[in-house]
């Protein structure tokens, strides 16, 4: 019996025999005993190898198998794999042993490595790789196919560049979900652009061949392939069918809405042009063009944000009262907080109710306050000029009232039209060309960048370049940013060379910084194609250009999680000599890893504990960017200690990041949300808190309640693709460290969270959705309780011990006199003496605390009494956490035209811990605009909501009140003596000086940190 053996010396001795039969017998025995006696067999492995190498030996494969197992136990995986390949058919991948699983895993890794190193032909995938290695992989693929482990097979196929395996899986399953999985993976796992293109070309053949063609995913593939003509052909084919099939019309509309979310302005323009030229008289083509222009999406989302605004003005008022508006940093902080809190709602109620505070804005704080109107009214494309008319530069050479409000208004105009700028590009370009005031040019350039994003408009680029060549620090910096935004993602060699050359010639740090970020924007999404520029920037002796190199890597590889890029950023974070570069390299990690936020806390844990405060700040902001809107507990665990950091700007970054992570989470879903709000409020009202920490807390208050509590912060689109505008906006937002107005760009990353079901006439019908979760989990946070509502009670005066003793003696004497006077009378009941001093205070506090607990317990809703589900009316807020619990009622009149696939958890009433886990597998009900198919077309139409402005306080304001707010901001005079750089722009490492404080030297080139000191 095997168990009785203590040695295999006798068996190994047979290996030295000359008879091949004895040697074969010995190998058979050793193959069954190697798991137990591998250590003893290690001495004989050389002899076993000799038998394998002897081509005349009939059992060479058996010798290879035994040798492979010995090397496996010795930890020599390379040799174990090599001999396993030699074993050929004897190496059975069907066995579920540790040896087989490990060697197969090693084989797959080596196969992928060889395939990645060889030229891709996109066919059978054999190439120059080992045929035996490919055979093992093919066997493993067949094993997984038999076990229906299709995602594992597709993962191997993508990494090994085996398109034939993808085709094989599709032929076997005809499963749409697997194709969607391949589409998601190819944009995140496959880094070689040529291979990615081959996979996408395969997918555009497979999606239409489904039993129900997936036109939505097909269009998404065309966007990734940058094929606008094929998109227009797809839309035209759907419109051709629409005359007899209403579903095709709805699919065309839904596809157009999806394109608006995921494509660039230039791409959409080409689709519109081609569709108009070839559609002829096809009905509904004009409606598709209007959708592609973005007007319908903006109209629907603006109406939702306007109607559902739940911003709490009490928070803003409390912050305004706590921060002295004479400090430009504080005034800017409140302006930014108000802008974020009311982003897209069009509500200027806070401004109208606080005209005295608004009038205190001066110089750059006035610029920031005026630009904030662009965030408030974002998407008001038709009314933008009339809204900003009081602030815009006068025409016809009229005298300027305030260059700061004029510059801010031009920036606001660009923010209103961000990514939809065609109507106002001419106006901004004309102003940039004709107005010589550098503050006005600064605002016009930033506005052009936002409005002309990714348009590749050569005329606009040339005007910006002309401003750059004037060598004005203030306008030149904005021109550098804007040039990158206009040519976003083009990787233009000429533009890169021009910007790089001027960056090395200029003496202005502001211009240099603008160009460094501008170059990074040029290479957005270009991945390996940007490596040459990245290498040149990171090796430069100038720290600002190295800073730009870090951001170039962040934007070029945004959302890819590219391992080599992550390693390089980590190396820069610990090795560069500049704190700015090191801080930026840590922040850049957030851009690379936002698709896998669960990995981010582990990545930056040690950096968040670094001795260097710049690395701690970078770690905080990286967590905020990568984990935005997720409520990730691991990220909050790292951020909470940073809110108590000894350095003010670290506390600032921690507050901002915490707000980004906790957006749209109430106290029931995540109790940490309420704790964070308390932290922000306490920091703002703390008398001795540093100015920069208060600045961060104020911004955090706006971000956590952004968009009237109806938006989230996300760098991904609803379909899982990278949100270009959001990534760019967040990258520019981080530049607020040097220039506060740049914080407004965070508004580009705000995404409304609603389900807006519309019919073919693009109207919202009465349509309810089922939410299989307690209503309190996803409800709006309650309004804050103002301090005035709390009754002030008189605090008992403290009693000294000596006084207490004297009073006790007096009471004793009085008692004795009373007893003597009442001799003979009946005894009286005496109250027990009350405790005094510290004991009395403690007892009262304990009693009050117990009373509060009882009151809270009585007021708290009982989960048992709360319904387990609710019906959500069309046009309501639906958070990203709530999506997986939604379903359409079976009896509903309207059904979504897009397949609605939610997770299995939609049938269970979740607890908070489970509810705040994001389910990335939800591929259908992803919110946004949903086209609905009417199953009762003859029934009368019932609208979903009444008048859109019914719940908005701004709607009731008179025209005179709006005009008064405008006049207040536009009429306040500028401080002509204040240098352009001295207002509201100090480095976040230091507090902003008050307006009447001594000003620093008016030299645009003074380093911001030094100037702040």
Automatic annotation (TrEMBL):
PANTHER family assigned to the protein according to its UniProt record, in alphabetical order: 26S PROTEASOME NON-ATPASE REGULATORY SUBUNIT (PTHR10943), 26S PROTEASOME NON-ATPASE REGULATORY SUBUNIT 1 (PTHR10943:SF2)
BP GO terms, sorted: proteasome-mediated ubiquitin-dependent protein catabolic process; regulation of protein catabolic process
Location of the 26S proteasome regulatory subunit RPN2 C-terminal domain: 753-899
GO molecular function: enzyme regulator activity
Name used for this protein in its record: 26S proteasome regulatory subunit RPN2
Compositionally biased region (Low complexity): 903-915, 947-983
Keyword annotations of the record: Proteasome, Repeat
Similarity section: Belongs to the proteasome subunit S1 family.
Composition skew (Basic and acidic residues), residue ranges: 863-872
Biased composition (Acidic residues): 1003-1013
GO cellular component terms, semicolon-separated: nucleus; proteasome regulatory particle, base subcomplex; proteasome storage granule
InterPro entries: 26S_Psome_Rpn2 (IPR016642), ARM-like (IPR011989), ARM-type_fold (IPR016024), Proteasome/cyclosome_rpt (IPR002015), PSMD1_RPN2_N (IPR048570), RPN2_C (IPR040623)
Domain 26S proteasome non-ATPase regulatory subunit 1/RPN2 N-terminal: 6-309
Pfam families named in the record: HEAT_2, PC_rep, RPN2_C, RPN2_N
Annotated source species: Malassezia pachydermatis
Functional note: Acts as a regulatory subunit of the 26S proteasome which is involved in the ATP-dependent degradation of ubiquitinated proteins.
């Amino acid at each position: 019996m095997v168990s009785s053996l203590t040695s295999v010396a006798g068996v190994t001795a047979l290996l030295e025999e000359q008879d091949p039969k004895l040697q074969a017998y010995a190998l058979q025995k050793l193959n069954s005993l190697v798991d137990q006696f591998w250590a003893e067999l290690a001495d004989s492995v050389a002899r076993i190898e000799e038998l394998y190498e002897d081509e005349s030996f009939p059992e060479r494969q058996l010798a290879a198998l035994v040798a492979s197992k010995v090397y496996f136990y010795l930890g020599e995986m390379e040799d174990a794999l090599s001999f396993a390949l030699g074993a050929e058919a004897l190496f059975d991948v069907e066995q579920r042993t540790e040896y087989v699983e490990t060697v197969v895993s090693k084989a797959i890794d080596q196969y992928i490595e060889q395939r990645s190193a060889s030229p891709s032909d996109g066919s059978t995938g054999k190439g120059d790789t080992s045929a035996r290695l490919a055979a093992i992989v093919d066997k493993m693929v067949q094993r997984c196919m038999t076990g229906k482990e299709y995602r594992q097979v597709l993962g191997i196929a993508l990494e090994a560049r085996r398109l034939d395996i993808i085709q094989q899986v599709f032929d076997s399953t005809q499963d749409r979900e697997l194709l969607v999985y391949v589409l998601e993976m190819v944009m995140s796992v496959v880094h070689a652009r040529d291979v990615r293109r081959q996979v996408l070309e395969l997918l555009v053949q497979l999606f239409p061949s489904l039993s129900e063609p997936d036109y939505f995913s097909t269009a998404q593939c065309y966007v990734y392939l940058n094929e606008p003509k094929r998109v227009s052909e797809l839309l035209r084919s759907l419109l051709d069918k629409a005359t007899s099939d209403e579903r095709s019309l709805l699919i065309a509309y839904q596809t157009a809405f999806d394109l608006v979310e995921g494509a660039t302005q230039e791409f959409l323009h080409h689709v519109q042009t081609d569709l108009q030229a070839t559609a002829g008289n096809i009905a509904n083509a004009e409606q598709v063009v209007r959708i592609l222009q973005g007007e319908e999406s903006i109209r629907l989302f603006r109406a939702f944000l306007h109607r559902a605004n739940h911003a709490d003005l009490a928070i803003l008022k409390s912050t305004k009262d706590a921060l002295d508006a004479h400090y430009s940093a504080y005034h800017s902080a409140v302006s930014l907080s108000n802008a974020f809190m009311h982003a897209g709602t069009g509500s200027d109620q806070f401004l109208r109710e606080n005209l005295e505070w608004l009038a205190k804005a001066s110089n750059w704080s006035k610029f920031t306050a005026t630009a904030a109107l662009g965030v408030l009214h974002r998407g008001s494309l038709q009314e933008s000029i009339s809204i900003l008319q009081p602030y815009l530069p006068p025409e016809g050479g009229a005298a300027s009232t305030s260059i700061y409000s004029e510059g801010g208004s031009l920036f606001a105009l660009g923010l209103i039209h961000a990514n939809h700028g065609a109507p106002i590009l001419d106006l901004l370009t004309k102003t940039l060309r004709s107005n010589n005031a550098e503050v006005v040019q600064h605002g016009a350039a930033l506005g052009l960048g936002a409005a002309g994003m990714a348009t590749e408009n050569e005329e606009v680029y040339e005007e910006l370049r002309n401003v750059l060549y004037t060598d004005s620090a203030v306008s030149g910096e904005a021109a550098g940013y804007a040039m990158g935004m206009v040519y976003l993602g083009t990787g233009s060699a000429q533009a890169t060379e021009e910007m790089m050359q001027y960056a090395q010639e200029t003496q202005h740090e502001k211009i240099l910084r603008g160009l460094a970020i501008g170059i990074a924007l040029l290479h957005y999404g270009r991945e390996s194609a940007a490596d040459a520029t990245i290498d040149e920037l990171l090796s430069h002796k100038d720290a600002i250009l190295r800073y730009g190199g870090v951001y170039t890597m962040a934007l070029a590889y945004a959302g890819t999680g590219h391992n080599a890029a992550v390693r390089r950023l980590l190396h820069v974070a610990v090795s560069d000599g500049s704190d700015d570069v090191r801080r930026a390299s840590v922040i850049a990690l957030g851009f690379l890893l936002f698709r896998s936020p669960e990995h981010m806390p582990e990545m930056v844990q040690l950096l968040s504990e670094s001795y260097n405060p710049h690395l701690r700040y970078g770690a905080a902001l990286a967590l905020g960017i990568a984990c935005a809107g997720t409520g990730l507990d691991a990220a909050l665990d790292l951020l909470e200690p940073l809110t108590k950091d000894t350095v003010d700007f670290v506390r600032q970054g921690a507050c901002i990041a915490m707000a980004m992570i906790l957006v749209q989470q109430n106290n029931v879903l995540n109790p940490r949300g309420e704790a964070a709000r308390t932290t922000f409020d306490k920091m703002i009202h703390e008398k001795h808190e540093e100015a920069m920490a208060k600045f961060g807390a104020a911004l955090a208050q706006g971000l956590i309640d952004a968009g009237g509590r109806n938006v989230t912060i996300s760098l991904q689109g609803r379909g899982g693709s990278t949100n270009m505008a959001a990534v760019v906006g967040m990258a520019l937002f981080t530049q607020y460290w040097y220039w506060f107005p740049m914080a407004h760009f965070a508004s580009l990353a705000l995404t409304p969270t609603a389900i807006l079901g519309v019919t073919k006439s693009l109207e919202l019908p009465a349509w309810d959705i089922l939410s299989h979760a307690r209503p309190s989990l996803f409800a709006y946070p309650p309004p804050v309780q103002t301090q005035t509502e709390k009754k002030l009670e008189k605090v008992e005066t403290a009693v000294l011990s000596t006084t207490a003793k004297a009073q006790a003696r007096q009471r004793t004497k009085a008692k004795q006199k009373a007893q003597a006077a009442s001799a003979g009378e009946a005894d009286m009941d005496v109250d027990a003496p009350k405790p005094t001093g510290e004991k009395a205070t403690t007892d009262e506090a304990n009693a009050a605390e117990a009373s509060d607990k009882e009151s809270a317990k009585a007021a708290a809703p009982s989960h048992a009494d709360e319904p387990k589900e609710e019906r959500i009316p069309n046009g309501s807020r639906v958070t990203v956490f709530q999506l997986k619990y939604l379903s359409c009622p079976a009896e509903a009149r309207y059904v979504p035209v897009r397949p609605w696939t939610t997770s299995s958890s939609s049938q269970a009433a979740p607890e908070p811990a489970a509810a705040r886990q994001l389910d990335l597998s939800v591929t259908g009900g992803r919110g946004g605009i949903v086209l609905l198919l009417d199953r009762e077309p003859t029934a009368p139409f019932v609208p979903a909501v009444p008048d859109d402005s019914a719940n908005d306080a701004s709607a009731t304001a008179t025209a005179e009140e709006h005009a008064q707010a405008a006049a207040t901001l536009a009429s306040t005079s500028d401080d002509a003596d204040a240098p352009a750089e001295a207002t509201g722009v100090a480095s976040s490492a230091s507090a902003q000086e008050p307006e009447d404080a001594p000003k620093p030297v008016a030299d645009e080139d003074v380093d911001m940190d030094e100037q702040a000191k």
